[in-house]
TrEMBL record:
<feature type="domain" description="GH64">
    <location>
        <begin position="3"/>
        <end position="377"/>
    </location>
</feature>
<feature type="region of interest" description="Disordered">
    <location>
        <begin position="376"/>
        <end position="420"/>
    </location>
</feature>
<protein>
    <submittedName>
        <fullName>Glucanase B</fullName>
    </submittedName>
</protein>
<dbReference type="InterPro" id="IPR037176">
    <property type="entry name" value="Osmotin/thaumatin-like_sf"/>
</dbReference>
<feature type="compositionally biased region" description="Low complexity">
    <location>
        <begin position="381"/>
        <end position="397"/>
    </location>
</feature>
<dbReference type="InterPro" id="IPR032477">
    <property type="entry name" value="Glyco_hydro_64"/>
</dbReference>
<dbReference type="InterPro" id="IPR037398">
    <property type="entry name" value="Glyco_hydro_64_fam"/>
</dbReference>
<dbReference type="Pfam" id="PF16483">
    <property type="entry name" value="Glyco_hydro_64"/>
</dbReference>
<feature type="compositionally biased region" description="Basic and acidic residues">
    <location>
        <begin position="408"/>
        <end position="420"/>
    </location>
</feature>
<dbReference type="InterPro" id="IPR042517">
    <property type="entry name" value="Glyco_hydro_64_N_2"/>
</dbReference>
Amino acid sequence: MTRSTLDIVLQNNTGSANAYAYVTGLDLNRNNAVFLLQADGVTGYYPSSPSDILQDVGADTAIPLGAPGSTKKLTIPQIAGGRIWFSRDGPLKFFLNPGPAVVEPSATNPADPNYNLNWGFCEFTFNSFQVYVNISYVDFVSIPVSLTLENDAGTVTNVPGFPSNALDTICDKLKAQDAADGAGWSNLVVRTADGSANLRALSPNSGIVMNQNLFNGYYQPYVDAVWDKYRSADLTVNTQAEWGDVKGRVGSDNLLTFGSVGSFAQPAARDIFSCSTGPFGGYPNNQAEMGAIGARFAAAFNRSTLLINDRQPEGESVANYYKDVRTNHYSRICHEVSPDGRGYAFPYDDVSSSNGTDQSGSLFDSNPKLLTVGIGGGNGTTAAAAEAPTKVATKEAVTAPATTSEKQPQKEEAQSQKEL
């Protein structure tokens, strides 16, 4: 059992003295009450429900990171759905909706007051069983972040994250890919308001939120080839859970059917990138088992391995990911630029073979002592850091996609908005 609180050290590697951090989540020991950490880094704030949407948070939750190179220590309670947010060259704005519900910054709403700011986040859950933390590129890439976790026995694990120049490298590679195939990858590059620099690189899923026509039809030739292959051969999916291997085949109804468990229609590009719409958008029957199958099916589409491996995800090799001309090139590029190849670049990037290499950039430990978050890059594995353990995607990890950031809506849209 973990202790009741966790110490977190934030390292300001941004080069800016005007950098801030925020911590949000749900307090597990207060009936999942909405939690924000106040500016002192130790005092929790539990807002009451406002009477209207987009109200002020009501407390100072902007934690100053200090001068470049300095550190700031935080202490948090046990939290579910946690995020550590960080911004450079100015604070972020959070709001409250009735509930209460925290309205978070959005990278896909140009009307959001945070849209033109340089910000990002990492995700974590800290409960009585363990701490789990990961670097997320599911929505976008911006400020690099590294993670180092020390446990009570002194064992140190690390995810180095991106180098400080990663954003420019990723944007250049996205533009080069667009020049090669004309699919629209350069539309994922977001520039600063004055056009002088790169601000962020959106994931394809986020890009489609901003432009509904982006990547229309992109995956169709690959999907057709997959369907043709499995009309006459079985696709075997190891659920890595109690259902073991299940076999599917495309029938005369043009559905890929896994016996009596359920079927998948052909996914569109938006379904593949989101892992949560179309045939991956919900299962009326056998929800847990279909979720386990769908997670591995969606991951194989993003990595474009279904034509070369008919047993998913067993038999998968990282060296074979993203080799088809039609693939999730955003994810490919993110993993290429990462020094150790790790980082959540699409919602089911934690899927791997049972003895495979972790791609998700996650750390976890049942006896955590100290989590260090380096903000701004240039904080690779230290001499004391051991190689992070492989994380096999469990049923719990892959029956729902990794979370994406909540959009911060305009006032008239906020009532229907999903929030924390």
